[in-house]
Amino acid sequence: MYFMVNTILIHVRNLGIRVASQARLSKIPFTERFVHAYIAHARGVIERQPFLL
Questions:
Q1: CB 33 within 8 A of CB 25
Q2: Which of 18, 37, 52, 53 has its CA 20 to 30 A from that of 10?
Q3: Residue-wise over 2-20: b if at least 16 C-beta within 10 A, else e?
Q4: Which H or E run contains 26?
Q5: pLDDT of residue 19 exceeding 80
Q6: What's the pLDDT tens digit per position in 21-50?
């Protein structure tokens, strides 16, 4: 029972965080968000490259 309640509370908290971050993101223009996401993705790919070789 405790585990189930804990799991539900974690999901509710995560959903609240996601909704709040979406509300903040909506104030930023789409192109700016896209560019930031693209750069972050490229950084992640570059950081992982040595492990792929």
A1: yes
A2: 37
A3: eeeeeeeeeeeeeeeeeee
A4: none
A5: no
A6: 777 767 778 788 788 888 888 777 666 655
Phi, psi of 27 (to 5 degrees): -80, -15
pLDDT of residue 48: 60
Place of tokens 């792929």: 52
Distance CA 48, CA 41 (A): 11
pTM of the predicted model, to two decimals? 0.36
Q: Show the domain range for 34.
A: 2-52
Residue type, 48: R
Structure tokens at 5: 């309640």
